[in-house]
Amino acid sequence: MKKSINLLLALLVATTVYGQKNIPNGTFDDWGIHKTEILSDWDVSGNVSASTDAFSGTKSLRLENTAANKTRGFITTGPFVDNKLYGIPYDEQPLSIRFRAKFDLALGDRAQVACLFTLKGNTIAFASLDIEGTSKDTFAYFSIPITWNASTNPDSVAIAISSLNLDNQEFNGDGYIIVDDFHFASISTRNKALPNGDFENWTTKTRDDLTGWYTTDD
User: Does the CA dihedral 105-169-194-187 come out positive or negative?
Assistant: First the structure.
């Protein structure tokens, strides 16, 4: 028994020494820089990134579903507090939401665009659309009618764009949607521009990144 224990200890020591010599950057001396692009003027959650696959300009918004870890891409005009989405100042009455989108979603999954116009905290107009299937690698054109319940101008607008339906949050598979040129319009005229509605403005965030290891600041 004693010989067996001694042999086991010897093997463990040998394996440990050998393993230490072969672990990449096991001394933690090598570091690089990890860069992440953050979308300006929007609140961001999940798989959100800049894409150079743009309809206009040089950049667009990419929202992605990853079924393995149940994550999706999601942007809003403001944070959720007590299940309420806060908006940004806006004082016009557009008739539609318009944008271009390229998408390839798993069967049964639906991306969603939702918008609420409010006045003193009360909803006076809304619009919503689910998107499913594939655009076959082309930018499809969308125009969503806005339903107004009052003739008074709003004081704010709350917008949410998600790669997955906001109501059920159900995943069937991996998928993505790329959105560009998001704006309001009345007939053929564009209304007041939304901050970074063309998704051209991104801020580069940097942090130290350990070479040879996976690191995250999520």
Answer: positive
